[in-house]
Amino acid sequence: MDINFIFLKFVYAAIVVSVIMGLCSYAVLAERKISSWIQGRVGPNRTSLPLVGLIPVLGPFLTRLGVFQPVPDGLKFLFKEDVVPGHVNKFYFIMAPVISLVPALTTVVVVPFGRIVTEAGEVVPLVLANVNVGLLFLFAISSLSVYGIVLAGWSSNSKYPFLGGIRASAQMISYELAMGVSVLPILMWVNHPGSKGTLNLFDIAQAQNGFWFAMWMPLSAIIFLICLFAETNRLPFDMAESETELVSGFHTEYSSFKFGLFFVGEYAHMVIGSCVFTLLFLGGWNPLPFVTIDMLGWGAGYIGAALSVAIFLGKMCGMMFFFMWIRWTLPRFRYDQVMKLGWKVLLPLSIANLIAYVFIIYYLETSL
């Protein structure tokens, strides 16, 4: 393999991981600002850096927006006292936060953030690993993050973290089924008879050049989105933490850097989940339904690549805003309500939706 190609892959990997981690840090700022706006408060507006004085007009404006707040937040996680209680199982207690974060960063390798059209007219995805089973890989790896939560709850040797870990595993099993079934109509549509057959996220996004799957399969999109909230342990599905019942749930005993890893892991899963929803249901890098990026006249070359990435990230940020809006709008469900919603509502709905699209797609295929 060409050494230049390997080097470029390493550079691209470093850029992607840096961008994801940067998005996670500023997602925390966005969370605090959005929550303050919803609740009629100001939010972070004081933290500044020494360099602000060098920017007489823009510096104070950025300070009021809280742009510099993620820097002290990150330093706080790094330099606070790292307490390891004496009653915990230290090896698994330390390993759990790493296991929670690593799957989110691993799934990035199959997520295309855009595309570039070469001079020969070839459409090349901007992705680290353009594998044919990208969607299957993503589901398989992202499910492993729950092991970090379960390990954290078990290794803490405390009742509340243990209950949080049990809740997380039960919730993952309950909603993973409905999430997987909700995606099957998309795969049936993309892998129609005569096609090459693919689970590639880039091919699924490219298949939405005319319409978005959110329009063609709205029930699948709604079910997938609800399950995405549950899989990322976001309100109203944060049963694993549930501060009013379990103190802080699985990370009650954690502090400093290890707590920071759990914190970053949650937002990393939000970022990747928003990217996947954008690819599966919102047309990827196509700006509007029935409007492709090529129709804008800038689809080729590096300008087209930058535009595709910008459109994709814009949709992803819109999804992140939706995550935060829901968190600060809806109350937390009871645990029995979460289980009933997963098993008695979403799973039957997803199966019925799948059966309906089996007949619809079969009819379309036979009549055309």
Question: Would you mind describing this structure in some detail?
Answer:
This protein is an all-alpha fold. It has one domain. The chain is built from 14 helices and 2 strands; from the N terminus they run ααααββαααααααααα. The chain has a two-stranded antiparallel ribbon with strand order 1-2. α1 packs across α12, α4 packs antiparallel against α6 and α7 runs parallel beside α14. The model has no long low-confidence stretch (mean pLDDT 85).
List keywords for this structure.
368 residues, mainly alpha, 14 helices
In a nutshell, what does this entry contain?
With 368 residues, the protein is mainly alpha-helical.
- The total domain count is 1
Provide the structure class.
mainly alpha
Q: Biggest sheet: strands, sense, closure?
A: 2 strands, antiparallel
Poorly predicted ranges (pLDDT <50, ≥5 residues)? none
Give the rounded overall mean pLDDT. Answer: 85
Neighbour order of strands in the largest sheet: 1-2
In quaternary terms, these chains amount to: single chain
Sequence of secondary-structure elements: HHHHEEHHHHHHHHHH
**Rg on CA atoms, Å:** 22 Å
Q: Helical segment tally?
A: 14
Number of strands: 2
Strand content: under 5%
Helix content: 55-70%
Shape: globular
Q: Whole-Å distance between the termini?
A: 44 Å
Topology, please?
Elements: H1 3-38, H2 58-65, H3 70-79, H4 90-106, E1 115-117, E2 123-125, H5 134-142, H6 145-155, H7 159-190, H8 201-206, H9 213-216, H10 218-231, H11 243-246, H12 256-281, H13 301-327, H14 335-367
Antiparallel strand pairs: 1-2
Helix pairs in contact: 1-12, 1-13, 3-12, 4-6, 4-12, 6-7, 7-10, 7-14, 10-14, 12-13
